[in-house]
Specification:
Elements: H1 2-49, H2 53-61, H3 66-81, H4 87-102, H5 106-113, H6 124-171
Amino acid sequence: MLKLMGSVMIFGACAALGLSARQGLRRRVTAADAMLLALHLMSGEISGRRTPVPEIVGQLAESENRIIRTVFGHLRRRLREENGLSLGYLWRSSLRDCREQVGLGQPECEILSEAAAWLGRYDAAEQVAGLEQIARRLAAARDTAAGELQNKGNLYRTCGIALGILVVLVLI
């Protein structure tokens, strides 16, 4: 009886690991989609209305999208509290602080961190060009994660379940 209970627990743990890996990939794709939307909104505000970046951050902090609201809410709070630091530094540190919470992968976070070089410049055209370049690179990273989800997502789940079954068969 004890072997059977142990086998069931190991099977469940292996299946959960596979499903967790798949869910992590799904969160990365969702977070990248949200940040792409935010970058496009920022580009539009900078080029069309010439809105200053701190005001754009405030608008995005009120977004209905949970991921955008979390990242830009954190950035807005840091802008208020630490107004002596550069916008680029606060952008990078906010992304680093929120990365796990919103589900951004390391590659996506590194790409987004490079946007700090473009934010807050005096020339709006330079800002927009830089943000569009970052958006293209982020879209490519998002597509890579989506491809992994498509190819490896089911594999993770299946391998987790198969490993669990194998352990159960060996133990019984």
